[in-house]
Write a structure and sequence with these properties.
By secondary structure, this protein is of the alpha/beta class. The chain folds into four domains: 47 residues; 112 residues, Immunoglobulins (Immunoglobulin-like); 32 residues, no CATH class; 211 residues, Rossmann fold (3-Layer(aba) Sandwich), CATH 3.40.50. Helices cover 40% and strands 26% of the residues. The chain has 13 helices and 20 strands. The strands form five sheets. Strands 2, 4, 6, 8, 9 and 10 form a six-stranded mixed β-sheet that branches. Helix 1 runs antiparallel to helix 2, helix 4 runs parallel beside helix 6 and helix 6 packs antiparallel against helix 7. The radius of gyration is 34 Å and the shape is elongated. The N and C termini lie far apart (71 Å). The mean pLDDT is 82.
Length: 455
């Protein structure tokens, strides 16, 4: 391979030869001089190519983190070791998939003596969830004169490239709500202990009676056995089951439009699936702190992901790793499959949280037919992202075009209300909120149901 220096050198020497021939008024000498220049340039280029170190005689290793939250950055270090007997002067390009968000120069210059090593650092800021693999490391080795270079072939570069994958985890932006929700959970525990036995509580332990205890809490059998007055203590019900069902069908692929701003371009918004994942993570962490069992099911026409049986310590890690690569499928969700999975899981009553869209067609043909058997055994909560732009468009009636848009928005809002009323008639709890507050609204409804003992 030739560099830009070859035509530059040839132009300089050839121009000199032509000028000399013109001054001497010897056309034959001019052509002989030009031929000599051509031979000299070809000889120098060939020697430069032969002296260049073989591009494939390098050893490549990687180091760095393998996980990063979406929106954060990591640095991956590629160590290049020259194992040839010649000095390696060249460029190293570490290529990644576009969604890995590699930042930095296109190629990194290296100058390595035999046995020396150099480090090439690539900063990654992923733009999508999931696995983001390294593609290929290409080595280009130049000769001392910089006239020619050797470069690894695509097949050779693929063999040399050390495999490395960085997993972009969900950003979990709703974790900012977690301190407030945990504080409410502690208040709920304190209220349960203070009021004693009631709905949503279970027996905890026996202790000695102190002044101020409710005499109705005295356990007479325990008192007879111990010889001292013993009272029963209660705690909030624990070991309840919470099942998060994430709809990965076609409706989850849609983006929720942001509120239109006059004179400004409307941003693309956030996918419904990402909002559901964020809300499910907050609910799972909150429920695990309440000592409830959290399971997760991602489904459309088949089960895409499932998580169950994780402890409080490993709950968040397992959920984020499982949900990292979850992508929507352009199919209609089979809610009958969800009902079948719940029936096979056992008869224990659970809180089933379905993260989906309030789409009349999808819910009318998919969810509503299986709701009676779900509600008969479980407490069902449907969580959906609310599109705030609908009410903005419905209120704008300045002209004829805006009036037609407002009519379409009003019809969409009426259909959403109709679907919500239909779900409520079945005894389903419905939470509909914008993307920014959906996770908080779902967590609040979980705490309310827990306080009422309806899990």
């Amino acid at each position: 391979m030739l560099t830009w220096r070859v035509p530059a050198l040839y132009g300089t020497l050839g121009g000199t030869a032509l000028a000399a021939g013109a001054l001497l008024a010897s056309p034959a000498g001019m052509w002989w001089a030009l031929a000599g220049v051509t031979g000299l340039v070809l000889l120098l280029t060939g020697l430069d190519w032969l002296v260049a170190a073989p591009a494939g005689e390098v050893q490549l290793t990687r180091s760095g983190p393998r996980q990063v939250r979406l929106g954060d950055s990591v640095e991956i270090t590629l160590t290049v070791t020259n194992v040839s007997l010649r000095t390696l002067r060249g460029l190293v390009r570490d290529a990644w998939v576009p969604s890995a968000g590699a930042d930095g120069p296109y190629a990194h210059p290296v100058d390595l003596e035999p046995g020396e090593s150099a480090q090439v650092v690539t900063r990654l800021t992923p733009t999508r969830r999931g696995d983001r693999p390294a593609v290929r490391v290409t080595i280009r080795s130049y000769g001392p004169l910089g006239l020619a270079f050797r470069q690894t072939s695509q097949r050779r570069a693929a063999r040399l490239t050390p495999p490395w994958t960085v997993t972009a985890l969900p950003p979990f932006t709703s974790r900012r709500f977690l301190p407030e929700k945990l504080s409410r959970l502690r208040v709920l525990d304190g209220q349960t202990v203070a009021r004693g036995r009631g709905q949503g509580t279970e027996f905890d332990a026996l202790r000695e009676y102190v002044v101020g205890d409710d005499v109705r809490s005295i356990d007479w059998r325990g008192t007879a056995r111990s010889g001292q007055v013993m009272v029963r203590t209660w705690r909030p019900e624990r070991d309840r089951r919470v099942l998060c069902v994430i709809d990965t069908g076609r409706t989850s692929a849609g983006r929720v439009a942001a509120v239109p701003v006059p004179g400004a371009a409307t941003p693309p918004g956030e996918p419904r699936l990402d909002a559901a994942i964020d809300a499910a993570l907050l609910l799972a962490v909150l429920a695990s702190h309440a000592d409830d069992r959290v399971d997760l099911l991602a489904v459309d026409t088949r089960i895409r992901a499932t998580v169950g049986g994780a402890t409080k310590r490993t709950q968040l890690d397992r959920l984020t790793r499982t949900l990292a690569g979850l992508q929507p499928a352009l199919v209609e969700t089979d809610f009958g499959l969800v009902a079948g999975e719940l029936m096979r899981a056992g008869r224990k009553r659970s809180l089933v949280v379905v993260f989906t869209a309030l789409d009349p067609g999808a819910l009318g043909e998919g969810l509503l037919p299986v709701l009676p058997q779900l509600v008969a055994r479980h407490t069902v909560l449907v969580a959906a992202v609310q599109d705030p732009s609908l009410r903005v468009l419905a209120a704008d009636r300045a002209g004829t075009a805006e009036l037609h848009v407002a009519a379409a928005a009003e019809r969409s809002l009426a259909e959403l209300d109709r679907v919500q009323r239909a779900l409520t008639r079945y005894g389903v709890h419905v939470v509909q909120a914008p993307v920014e507050t959906l996770a908080s609204a779902v967590a609040d409804r979980y705490l309310s149901l827990k306080a009422a003992g309806r899990l």
